[in-house]
Amino acid sequence: MSEKVTVGLLGLGVVGSGVIKLIENHQQKLAHQLNCNVRVKRVLVRNLEKSRDVDIEEDLLTTNPDDVLNDPEIDVVVEVMGGIDEAKDYILKAFASNKHVVSANKDLVALHGPELQDAATRNKCDFFYEASVAGGIPILRGIVDGLASDRIGQVMGIVNGTTNYILTQMDSEGVSYENALIEAQKLGFAEADPTSDVEGLDAARKMAILGRLAFSTPVDLDDVEVSGIKGIELEDLQYGDKLGYTMKLIGYANFDNHELEINVQPTLLAKTHPLASVKNEFNAVYVYGEAVGETMFYGPGAGSLPTATAIVSDVVSVIKNMRLGVSGNQFVEPHFKKELKAPDKRYAQYYVRLYAKDEAGVFSNISALFHDQDISFKRILQTPVNKDEVAEIIFITHQTSLQNFQHALEKLKGLDAVLEVKSYYKVEGDAIS
Ligand code: HSE
């Protein structure tokens, strides 16, 4: 083993700068653990002139990817440039030159992870991507190593900080979705174009990666059903609160009898659930294992240094494997063939809010309609609306299949007395209110 291991970086944005700082600041600890120094030799950037948030010798910077990918001294390539096609091309070239790769790129790993993993294994290289899910939280290692002995049945995650910040502000400050989003943008928690966060796509990518590793089945991004938080109304958070629930954007994955259910959707979560206490921009992943029971991994889901800890820890693992001569051996083919769970086997509770005519018999019609689908109500609220003879009705069902709930909802929309179904959400857990 040489006295130093040499790293090449693709990208020097917020996360790349964090990697440089962390390697520099923690050099002693790294050297102690690895018995060698870790040195960054080249960094691919788009613009050599740009001012940066990190001290770096100018001659380390290059705009030519070959300076990183074809340098025989570079052992490990760290991809923090983002995007899909170019990043994928560079990573494949790195494997072809027998370089190990550490990536933070969730979009790429969610879309092409298995193909990249395959290329890594063929070239006896390591490919690690801890930073792609929940930034600084070591959740992938938690699942793959920490829970290697268990059978995981359920993973639930608050894996998007932007939406968690918006929902927390709506809940605690009573502000609308639109105003909470503007505030999040001002504070830098939300991007100028927040589409991929607020529409749930960012969380879906992370859930696809989590699902693959937790259940050892080949989850595709398209398998993840997604609905985001755009346009969520404050009223639903307030009624949820009255009933003992808090609104969260939950990534949910369940594997039972070798059948997979995986989705991202706004969910009214019982305040007693461990994930309900995760506020603002923080992330957390709740994992239920058959033997271990409930576990939860909590921490920062983004940010320069937190994300850099995941990346540099991956670099440490790469170096340990190099030393042991076991690089490229970690990948295990998915154990189970993918079977998506049909709607008649997907069980949940649901919250519904609607406007109805405030007249005799309306409630019994609604309840008969749900009874026909074998759905019973757990909680009911009715409040008068500031319009003549209109009532707002809120109810939470007991567990029902998605199929029966969808049938009931269709019929509900067709009832004469129902003026508008305002909203409906999945409910998770049992509230005490
Ligand atoms: N945009 C992500 C979030 C951070 O809001 O959590 C990076 O994954």
Automatic annotation (TrEMBL):
Pathway the protein contributes to: Amino-acid biosynthesis; L-threonine biosynthesis; L-threonine from L-aspartate: step 3/5; Amino-acid biosynthesis; L-methionine biosynthesis via de novo pathway; L-homoserine from L-aspartate: step 3/3
Cofactor(s), names only, from the UniProt record: a metal cation
Keywords attached to this entry: Amino-acid biosynthesis, Metal-binding, Methionine biosynthesis, NAD, NADP, Oxidoreductase, Sodium, Threonine biosynthesis
UniProt-listed Pfam families: ACT, Homoserine_dh, NAD_binding_3
Domain ACT: 351-426
GO BP terms: methionine biosynthetic process; threonine biosynthetic process
Chain positions recorded as NADPH binding sites: 106
Metal-binding recorded as keyword: yes
Keyword field contains Cytoplasm: no
Residues given in the record as NADP(+) binding sites: 10-17
The enzyme's E.C. designation: 1.1.1.3
Domain of life of the native organism: Bacteria
Family: Belongs to the homoserine dehydrogenase family.
Protein name (Swiss-Prot/TrEMBL): Homoserine dehydrogenase
Organism classification: Bacteria, Bacillati, Bacillota, Bacilli, Bacillales
